[in-house]
Amino acid sequence: MPATASHRIAINGLTDIGQVRNENEDNIRWYNHPTLPFGYVVVADGMGGYNGGSTASTIAVNYIGKHLEAIVNPTFQSCTPNQQELIIQSTLIEAINVANAEILLAKQKNPQLGQMGTTVAIAIIWQDQVTISHLGDSRAYLWDKQGFIQLTKDHSLVQELIDSGSLNEDQARQSNIRNQITRALGVTQSVDPSINNYQLTQNCLLMLCSDGLTEYLDNGQLDYVLSTHRPALECCYRLIDDANLLGGKDNISVGIIEYTLEAAHQSSSQATFTAPPAQPDEDITVRKFVQ
User: Fold this and answer.
1) Burial degree of 115 (CB within 10 A; 0-12, 13-18, 19+)
2) What integer pLDDT is reported at residue 6 of this predicted model?
3) CB atoms closer than 10 angstroms to residue 122
4) Residues with Cβ < 8 Å from 39, sequence gap 6 or more?
5) I need a surface site. Which of 84, 120, 136, 168 has the fewest CB within 10 A?
6) What's the rounded Cα separation, in Å, for the pair 71 and 89?
7) Distance separating the N- and C-terminal Cα atoms of the chain
8) pLDDT tens digit sequence for 242-290
9) CB count, 10 Å around CB of 4?
10) Where in this chain does the record put each PPM-type phosphatase domain (predicted)?
11) Is the CB of residue 152 less than 8 Å from the CB of residue 210?
């Protein structure tokens, strides 16, 4: 079936300084191909004090974005689906490594930026395939008519305590170490991003965000907004408004991909993803690739 006829995507993204900070250290970049069902969202939450955080997040989204936008070319389009999947994954890994190296180089050139680094969350969509990657505590979620799922697990000290059973989710949200991350861009010479690939089988929304949003809105509240607020892409504005009304202590970034599959091609499955024998929070996903 022709890809351009059966898959449609629309993308929107927004970043906001919040109510307290003097500078926005978040950055977001997104792209929607004008004729093909290809696009991406990159959210980066910088750290490192005045100017440093915004520099790191800007480097991250720009270098990653430029690499991703070069994926769809005549050679790529002539490849098989399996080959295309591998091209996307290898390009993504290269992009993350280049961004990491560029941040380290900027720190070397300017000692005032010596403490900078950034989280990153990335979603790349091509036809019915979506690749999700992240470092740190910026997150990716999926919403469809069957429910709401968090696709990423934070690289943070608090998440390690949750995994060990020392903290529950409510305690973690109040912890004074909740912002201490264990992986980021621009901190070490090598990086270890989490990367997963999924197949979409019905209409859905993919949402990426920085922790300026999830500090205030839990998964139930995010689910409610994505379920009820339309047009779907305007959820970006609604979610940022909600976080600001609740305090807006941090910068806030939200990106949303709206994926639509023509009715004739929609799966009769009872879930957006076919269920594998996996953990309970992944019971509506097909994880095709893991790093």
Assistant:
1) middle
2) 87
3) 29
4) 9, 11, 30, 31, 32, 33, 124, 125, 257
5) 168
6) 10
7) 30
8) 999 999 999 999 999 999 997 654 544 433 443 333 333 443 344 444 4
9) 12
10) 8-259
11) no
Encoded tokens for 106: 């900027």
Percent of the chain with pLDDT over 90: 77
The burial class, CB within 10 Å (0-12 / 13-18 / 19+), for 174 is: exposed
HSE value, Cβ hemisphere, 13 Å, CA-based, for 35: 4
Walk me through the domains of the chain, giving residue ranges and CATH numbers: 3-290 (3.60.40.10)
Length of the chain: 291
Q: What angle do CA 23, 24, 30 make, to 5 degrees?
A: 160
Taking only the tens place, the pLDDT of each residue in 208-249 is 999 999 999 999 999 999 999 999 999 999 999 999 999 999
Question: From CA 36, how far away is CA 150, in angstroms rounded?
Answer: 27
